[in-house]
Amino acid sequence: MPSGILIVTETLEGALRPASLELVTAAVGLAQPVTALVPGAGVASAAQDVATAGVARVLVADADRLNSFTTDAFATAVEAAIKAADPAVVLFAGTTSGRDLAPRIAARFNAPLAANAVGLRLDGAALIATRPVLGGRVQTDVRLEGQLVMASIGPGAFERASVGGAPATIEALDVDFSSIPERVRVTGVATVDAGGGATLANAEVIVAGGRGLKEPGNFALVEALASQLGGAVAASRAVVDAGWRPHQEQIGQTGKTVAPKLYIAIGISGAVQHNVGMQGSDHIVAINRDPDAPIFKLASFGIVGDLFEVVPELTKQLGG
To answer: What are the helix and strand counts (H, E) for the chain?
Structure first.
């Protein structure tokens, strides 16, 4: 009989991604034994980290075919882990690759899937997943039943588990790729500099600009502050649609979801479509001249004022 939780962790250049530690927290909260799958190439260090984060068992699929993400290869590794662990619940990160993998694996096992869950609990043998709907304005519970159920976890929905505890058992997982066609081959990976020397995926500080900047040239204010803080530059949909910034910098429902330690919103009103992409940030600072801007409802700290005066002064006070 299936039992326990399997989490599918992710790595970047051999290191455990923060979203994987959020998965650990989500899984441990269900009070069931947790097995972590660590797929990739050269991921021994990542396996050691997740083994000390509170899981009971770690399965390591370390293979050249897993050096870069391709759906066929990673799906094969996840399928092998499910057969080895025989879990009742499988959890994925709500990242780009996780959103690709989860429905494919669910289809292979004919299992129900809840995407972008922000809360999980067990009700007997059923998994109850809380999901945001209507652009994040409402949350609803989805009941998943069956011998095997699956969910992907929205970025920032759970705290990151701490590493450094008692180590769990680490086992090598044998994955047979011989019958898997190599339909896609990754020939290179380009890292885009998001303005402050950090990328949105790993930045602990993000400085985002909106229409309040009035014209694209004024994004230099955002870039200067991000550079001073060693953070990444981001944008609202309005300025991306206007062609001021590239889509890869867009935060929100149709862009990226981030959860940095510090998110600074400059000239952003705080439409719900934007807020769902950053509301998981530890601390939010809003700078806007409109005291009734919705962004202030989320902000840990708010500055009501002219951004063209506030931002240069803030950058100056920080040493810029």
So the answer is: 9, 17
* C-alpha to C-alpha distance for 213 and 71, rounded to whole angstroms: 40
* pTM, 2 dp: 0.75
Indicate if 120 and 266 belong to the same structural domain. Answer: no
Strand-pair category, 57-62 with 113-117:
unpaired
pLDDT at 133: 77
Residues 30/36/39/40 CA torsion (nearest 10 deg): 110
The domain that holds 273 is classified in CATH as: 3.40.50.1220
Write the pLDDT tens digit of every residue in 76-123. Answer: 999 999 999 999 999 999 888 999 999 999 999 999 999 989 899 999
The CATH number given to whatever domain includes residue 82 is 3.40.50.620
Q: How many domains does the chain have?
A: 2
pLDDT tens readout for residues 139-152 = 899 999 999 999 99
Chain position carrying tokens 């609803």: 140
How far is the C-alpha of 26 from the C-alpha of 117, rounded, in Å?
Answer: 10
